[in-house]
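Researcher: Please generate the 3D structure of the following complex. Treat every line as part of one assembly.
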Amino acid sequence: MDEFTWYKIINRTEFLATGLVSRSIDVVLEGIGAKTVLITVGNYFSITIDDVMLSVGITDASPFIFSGYAVFADLNGDVWYGVPK
Amino acid sequence: MLNGIDPIIIFNFKAHQVRLNPNTPIPLVPTDDVTIDLPAVPIYLSEALTGVIIDSEDKHVDIDTTTVALVTGDKTTYTQRPIGSNVTINMTASKNSIGVTLFSALSDLILPKLASKEYSITYLHGAITVFQGLLSAFSITQNTNDDRYNISITLVKPSTAKQGAVDVRPPGNPVTLAG
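Model: Done. Output below.
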């Protein structure tokens, strides 16, 4: 967990309550810049940033790391995006 | 005239000056944007002066509203952001009027400057004003039954004000089992 800088993207519980299967949001990650995040709900809850799709719980590993980036859903249901330090 | 009797539309042009960093002999990308203002072209929308009269003016503000309704029945949330504020001017002119010639020439002159934004258009007519607007649409239509031209110009008023809070996410700490 320490090798990443974590940014909170969205709360999974609240997003699932909307009933939406996808949504695109624009956020500014402090120290990085503006990013467009595509949130998708299918078999897994996923976020796609810069063409990298990160799915929560798709493997047993937590956080899920792919292409150097990570995703993690914490105890409060918040989905975090990890950027390598 | 500028005292408000006749409407006026002013085409402003400028040229970007590419300037290398003077502090080093290494040719670096310029960090400051220097523009040179070129002479403006005013067109009085007066039947006597330019042969152009205004038929109608239209101003509308477009807003993008995203609605999220929760299946749980909780309060619906709305997210709004501005798309633009447009002014459309519909004019009539006779075929031989200087105004038609000017509008037609200037609209062609603007086309290569769209990407670099080396132009702006100011329109003043009473309560309808657009300062340093951008051209959104332009058309000239000739009627078959007479020698009149219908001219339509749509100007976009770019917003320079801050558009509400920006969604900035600072780095944080996820809540893990270890706390």
